């Protein structure tokens, strides 16, 4: 596995930067290994729903997981507020970094991820093939 380390700064859009990084580095099959940092704004799609919610506050990133490929990214995030209350969901654009976001990305060797529309789910779903 090849690894990358990146650091985002205040105001950068977490999802957009991960999409750009994936494309710029031609990552064919990537995953988020770890992420620590914070956001001041988050836009999340709630579980098994079309409901999208916006959150504005200071949140610690307690988890960021997902898959990355040239066709797109699929990311889920969990965030905690000052009282330790946790929110989470499918990360959309408009998740803005607060102080920092330190991210380690893994690129799987000999594997290729693509995303294709699945009529059963209504989403672009992950396809995995060997290189």
TrEMBL record:
<keyword id="KW-0238">DNA-binding</keyword>
<dbReference type="InterPro" id="IPR005175">
    <property type="entry name" value="PPC_dom"/>
</dbReference>
<dbReference type="GO" id="GO:0003677">
    <property type="term" value="F:DNA binding"/>
</dbReference>
<dbReference type="Pfam" id="PF03479">
    <property type="entry name" value="PCC"/>
</dbReference>
<feature type="domain" description="PPC">
    <location>
        <begin position="1"/>
        <end position="129"/>
    </location>
</feature>
<protein>
    <submittedName>
        <fullName>DNA-binding protein</fullName>
    </submittedName>
</protein>
């Amino acid at each position: 596995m090849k690894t990358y380390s990146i650091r985002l700064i205040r105001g950068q859009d977490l999802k957009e930067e991960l999409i750009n990084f994936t494309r710029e580095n031609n990552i064919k099959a990537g995953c988020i290994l770890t992420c620590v940092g914070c956001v001041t704004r988050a836009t999340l799609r709630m579980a098994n729903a079309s409901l999208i919610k916006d959150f504005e506050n200071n949140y610690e990133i307690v988890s960021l997981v997902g898959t990355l490929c040239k066709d797109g990214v699929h990311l889920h995030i969990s965030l905690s507020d000052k009282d330790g209350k946790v929110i989470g969901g499918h990360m959309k654009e408009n998740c803005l970094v607060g102080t920092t976001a330190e991210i380690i990305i893994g690129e799987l060797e000999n594997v290729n991820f693509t995303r294709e529309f699945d009529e059963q789910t209504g989403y672009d779903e992950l396809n995995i093939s060997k290189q």
